[in-house]
Amino acid sequence: MPEVPTLSESGLTGYESSTTFAMFAPAATPKDIIARLNRELIKVLAAADVKERLANQGIEPLGSSPEEFTAYSRRETQKWGKVIRERGIKVE
Questions:
Q1: Start-to-end C-alpha separation, the chain
Q2: Among the listed residues 52, 78, 59, 55, the one whose alpha carbon sits nearest the alpha carbon of residue 18
Q3: Taking each helix axis from N to C terminus, what angle separates 48-55 and 31-46, rounded to the nearest 10 degrees?
Q4: Structural contact between residues 91 and 69, judged by C-beta atoms closer than 8 angstroms
Q5: What is the pLDDT of residues 2-34, one digit of tens each?
Q6: Per-residue confidence at 56, pLDDT binned at 50, 70, 90?
Q7: 40-72 burial string, b = 16+ CB within 10 Å, else e?
């Protein structure tokens, strides 16, 4: 929706949010299998046709290592957990 201004364009600063899609495997999956799945997923995300299809949906594929995603996931859990606790958000 290019005609709708972003929060920052509307004068509201300090907001950040994104949507994440990730691939998960059972915790006991051997590290070599995880590494291979990650390599193959990175290849798929780098394919021109996949990048084009995702871009047409407004999705920017990043891809990362399992370690990078684990660190990202922990940061997001801490950030949003704090918001949930401070605001007293409950599941309804």
A1: 30
A2: 59
A3: 70
A4: no
A5: 899 988 899 988 887 788 899 999 999 999 999
A6: very high
A7: eeeeeeeeeeeeeeeeeeeeeeeeeeeeebeee
**Dihedral of the alpha carbons of 62, 65, 71, 77, in degrees to the nearest 10:** 60
Residue 83 near residue 89 (C-beta atoms within 8 A): yes
**Stated pTM of the model:** 0.71
Strands (DSSP E) along 1-92, which ranges? none
Backbone angles phi, psi at 90, to 5 degrees: -125, 150
Tokens of 78: 């801490």
Contact assessment for residue 68 and residue 76, using Cβ atoms and an 8 Å cutoff:
no
Mean pLDDT of the chain: 92
Q: CB under 8 Å, gap of 24 or more: what pairs does 19-26 form?
A: 20/72, 20/76, 21/59, 22/69, 22/73
